[in-house]
């Protein structure tokens, strides 16, 4: 069996790896590190949670151990799709460079430009960035990419989903042609393959798992749910989620709950908090400091349930997540693989449960085609008639069914009054209409005496005669 000591890593890097408690590399690490140390381009294809980060950080640190950075000209570049993933990569560099004097900078949104400019001005060996913030610095004239010797693109398929491919192509054009490129992705869409063919030179292809496969250590299940009424579907669906969490009991030590929309992330998190669950939201609209606090709380066990959008699907490196709940079926089948890959990491057992409503059936079929297996169906733990909302609706219907009887009674009560009104009207008709006739006669007399128009008054200017003046 291959060990890290067999991979020709720098002794100081190897010492840091051993202190971190690792002895045996994962398949992607064992396959990618040797060609990367030889200076070859690498194309790594592996599912999430297989140790891709260390497969490029370890050879990069070894290669960068010799040399010195210059101001505004980083020696290496790592591109990540999300802030969380970039921060995770930065933590890995901190872990493995503890015995080396290498500098790094993290360029992500939500952080002051001034602080980042100061780091770049001093010169960095490793620049870790999201594409948008990197180009912002470049366009402001604060950064040069002509000194990049090693370039890494991590989670390339996620870059494609988030629309970063044009930015990636531009960044490639700003780096030297002689750079070494390490390219990692969980899936190989046609657009990703086009980029690898364009920008990688005879890469060593390392594929340790079939494309878009879920780890065998993850127990999967799907609950098919249909709401009693469309306007009640969302609240009933949240009740199903709570019942699923409760059904797992103590086995659910912590969990990530994925929603498709950021607005739903907030709604689900607030709903769980209302019912006494320890939950917190995380999505792209939150401040970076708030996202960092939430993630730290989840890692430390202070937050049990993390309600997240797909921005967190590939940016979390928490090895001990026991459960993943898909509150929504993801629109892209590949996202399902990445979501459930947050559990069952590093050989641990995990469980992933998805709630599927009728309009998500096509998306579920696409997922099963992608992973080439049928996801077991689970029984819905909630009976709709037991929900408080359903009981209140039943009471409403019962009260509505009683309404006709009540209306009949009300009409019966009103009948004497109506009879009285009819009697008064008849009495009025029988009375001689003397007063009414007198009132009408006076009204007609007044109308006849009233002057309509000009009356007898004739303005003087009308009586004037206008004669043409003759010339004298």
UniProtKB/TrEMBL annotation:
Catalytic activity, EC: 3.6.4.13
Residue ranges of the region described as Disordered: 382-472
InterPro entries documented for this protein: DEAD/DEAH_box_helicase_dom (IPR011545), DEAD/DEAH_RhlB (IPR044742), DEAD_box_RNA_helicase (IPR050079), Helicase_ATP-bd (IPR014001), Helicase_C-like (IPR001650), P-loop_NTPase (IPR027417), RNA-helicase_DEAD-box_CS (IPR000629), RNA_helicase_DEAD_Q_motif (IPR014014)
Residue ranges of every copy of the Helicase C-terminal domain listed in the record: 244-388
Catalytic activity annotation: ATP + H2O = ADP + phosphate + H(+)
A single cellular component GO annotation: cytosol
Molecular function GO labels: ATP binding; hydrolase activity; nucleic acid binding; RNA helicase activity
Gene Ontology biological-process annotations: response to temperature stimulus; ribosome assembly
Biased composition (Basic and acidic residues): 382-449
Superkingdom in the source lineage: Bacteria
Alphabetically ordered keywords of this record: ATP-binding, Cytoplasm, Helicase, Hydrolase, Nucleotide-binding
Gene3D superfamilies, per database record: P-loop containing nucleotide triphosphate hydrolases (3.40.50.300)
Domain DEAD-box RNA helicase Q residue range list: 2-30
Family: Belongs to the DEAD box helicase family.
Protein name, entry field: DEAD-box ATP-dependent RNA helicase RhpA
Species in which this protein is naturally found: Ruegeria marina
């Amino acid at each position: 069996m291959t060990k890290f000591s067999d991979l020709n890593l720098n002794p100081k890097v190897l010492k840091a790896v051993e202190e971190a408690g690792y002895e045996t590399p994962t398949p992607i690490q064992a396959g990618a590190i040797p060609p990367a140390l030889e200076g070859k381009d690498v194309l790594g294809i592996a599912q999430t949670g297989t140790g891709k980060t260390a497969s490029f950080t370890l050879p990069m640190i070894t290669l960068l151990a010799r040399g010195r950075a210059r101001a505004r000209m980083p020696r290496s570049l790592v591109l990540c799709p999300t802030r969380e993933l970039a921060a995770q990569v930065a933590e890995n560099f901190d872990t493995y460079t503890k015995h080396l004097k290498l500098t790094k900078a993290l360029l992500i949104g939500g952080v002051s430009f001034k602080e980042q400019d100061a780091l770049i001005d001093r010169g960095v060996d490793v620049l870790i960035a999201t594409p948008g913030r990197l180009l912002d610095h470049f366009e402001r004239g604060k950064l040069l990419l002509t000194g990049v010797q090693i370039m890494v693109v991590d989670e390339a398929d996620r870059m494609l989903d988030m629309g970063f491919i044009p930015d990636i192509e531009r960044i490639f054009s700003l780096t030297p042609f002689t750079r070494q490129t390490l390219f990692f992705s969980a899936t190989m869409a046609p657009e990703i393959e086009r980029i690898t063919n364009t920008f990688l030179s005879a890469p060593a292809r390392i594929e340790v798992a079939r494309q878009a496969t879920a780890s065998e250590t993850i127990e999967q299940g799907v609950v098919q749910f249909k709401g009693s009424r469309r306007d009640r579907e969302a609240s009933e669906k949240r009740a199903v989620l709570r019942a699923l969490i409760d059904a797992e009991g103590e086995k659910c030590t912590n969990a990530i709950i994925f929603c498709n929309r950021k607005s739903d992330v907030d709604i689900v998190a607030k709903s769980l908090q209302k019912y006494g669950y320890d939950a917190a939201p995380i999505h792209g609209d939150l401040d970076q400091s708030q996202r960092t606090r939430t993630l730290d709380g989840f890692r430390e066990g202070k937050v049990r349930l993390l309600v997240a959008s797909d921005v967190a699907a590939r940016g979390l490196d928490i090895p001990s997540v026991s459960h993943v709940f898909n509150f929504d079926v993801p629109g892209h089948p590949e996202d399902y693989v990445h979501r459930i890959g947050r559990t069952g990491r590093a050989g641990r057992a995990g469980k992933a449960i998805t709630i599927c409503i009728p309009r998500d059936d096509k998306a579920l079929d696409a997922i099963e085609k992608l992973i080439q297996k049928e996801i077991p169906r689970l029984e819905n733990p909630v009976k709709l008639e037991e929900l408080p909302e359903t009981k209140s609706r039943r009471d409403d219907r019962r009260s509505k069914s009683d309404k006709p009887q009540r209306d009949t009674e009300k009409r019966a009560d009103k009948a004497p009054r109506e009879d009285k009104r009819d009697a008064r009207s008849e009495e009025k008709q029988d009375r001689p209409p003397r007063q009414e006739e007198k009132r009408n006669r006076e009204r007609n007399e007044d109308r006849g005496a009233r002057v309509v128009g000009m009356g007898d008054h004739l303005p003087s200017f009308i009586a004037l005669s206008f004669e043409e003046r003759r010339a004298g």
